Amino acid sequence: MRTIRTVAELRTHLRSSRRAGRTVGLVPTMGALHDGHLALIAAAREAADEVVVSLFVNPTQFNDAGDLDAYPRTEADDAVAAADAGAHVLFAPPVAEVYPDGFASEVRVGGPLTERLEGAHRGAGHFHGVTTVVTKLLNMVGPDVAVFGAKDAQQVLVVRRLVRDLDVPVRIEVVPTVREPDGLARSSRNVRLRPEDRAVAVAIPRALDAASSLLADGERDAAAVRAAAERVLDDAGLRPEYVALADPATLAEREGALPVGPSLLAVAVPVGPVRLIDNVELVVAPSAAGADDPPSTGGLQAATAAG
Amino acid sequence: MRTIRTVAELRTHLRSSRRAGRTVGLVPTMGALHDGHLALIAAAREAADEVVVSLFVNPTQFNDAGDLDAYPRTEADDAVAAADAGAHVLFAPPVAEVYPDGFASEVRVGGPLTERLEGAHRGAGHFHGVTTVVTKLLNMVGPDVAVFGAKDAQQVLVVRRLVRDLDVPVRIEVVPTVREPDGLARSSRNVRLRPEDRAVAVAIPRALDAASSLLADGERDAAAVRAAAERVLDDAGLRPEYVALADPATLAEREGALPVGPSLLAVAVPVGPVRLIDNVELVVAPSAAGADDPPSTGGLQAATAAG
Q1: Are residues A64 and A163 located together in one domain of the fold?
Q2: What is the mean pLDDT of residues A245-251?
Q3: Which residue in A17, B114, B150, B242 is deepest, having the highest Cβ count within 10 Å?
């Protein structure tokens, strides 16, 4: 695996790959690679001949300077992990290569997709930072496929909208969330959890599980399903920023009876010094007309198995 | 020449061109093709094997609904002209193909480049409309080179910034303004000039000429050079929106003595029902230490000759 720092060198390298007829997959990361990232790299290897892992802690998507400073930076370990996972290129540009002097552009997805959930709590600027850097990375690499993780469900939605709206010629692939044995979603921020935080954090996947179970038991009322998740967090002494049960296409909050099809249960929860997010898709099966006909859940269990 | 209406068909067509090793040039237009556009197409033919002329009257860059409605639409004639000029594809998508339901994205260049001159008078939204549709067209076509006209000097500056900032893998080429025999810059809007407007409109290139001549005579004071242009417009009874003499990289207004190198003299002038823009580059030669050493002007004369 080669580590590349500049766009010019990256393009020279990829030009010869393309001439050789090789397809290219991109896995955008902010480093601190964990099993979740390795699942993305594995998916990219399935989907393309050559895999570029980008490692860039993008300052413009951090609403909180403290969070940016505290974000783990472990490039030497990341290079070993990416190479072991079969990546061909680690693209790790310095900030000045990505945002040179005079940089003045921004790519925005407007409206509810960036205003709700993470947008409401981190500010819409968070997603403008994401869409700008993703557009740049897609233009730098020109991949056939780019792979994202389902843990960042809203980000996936926003990136899909971006790619469709701006006619970016790339296929977006989404890989299920990878979890610890106790269910906690893998995240680069987990390393910042103190032992006492780590013990409490398991309440997050348990909250999602509680909602899934209630749905599986036949409950259809959105407020009741949401409350099941809230109760678990509350019992653990956690104060979520949000517990949203929403339309997975528009992020509009569900009210009343859940419709047939998928709904997105998404949470953001501060645990000690760390803000964690997680989500699960809850699916009401088409045939499920009443409480006696348990729905399938395309959620946590399935995702855990896939991870 | 083929006329193509959808992105899918365009990509299929270009894929086979690329497989055959042909490079692609894009000439983005809003139709109503005139000699200025034909010069762009000729430049694209020089620069690439296959030339795509896009024809799309982009609603999002019109700040004035009346201007959008009145914008000339002459696709049948345009197709003949583009084919005669050697274009291979006329890409003329309907609005719904470019902005489908749910479209929510915007590409912005922020700061002085879009806030000054046209941005100040048409609103920054004008350029956001331009940069969004140019990004889309570049993504749809994936050209090796895209060709723009020098008449829209600020647009060229903004597009160059966009391409650099977002790492769009395309070369931008700029073609000098093509003029009528009396000097009026060719514009799709000229057809809307009534005969009495057309007679007056010649004051615009004469104003630029007057400033160029004054500079050639040794004048270095920015205010004096600007005033020379303003006087010609005023004498013709025209009320310009702006007469700017600016740094061509930042559009910051020149004050005091003009520095060595190029300055941009740009004007926007309503003539009857039509708003016209024009510009010329004024160059103070490096050796010109004083008024006795006349500078070269890289401006109107040179551009007229090239057109």
Answers
A1: yes
A2: 97
A3: B114
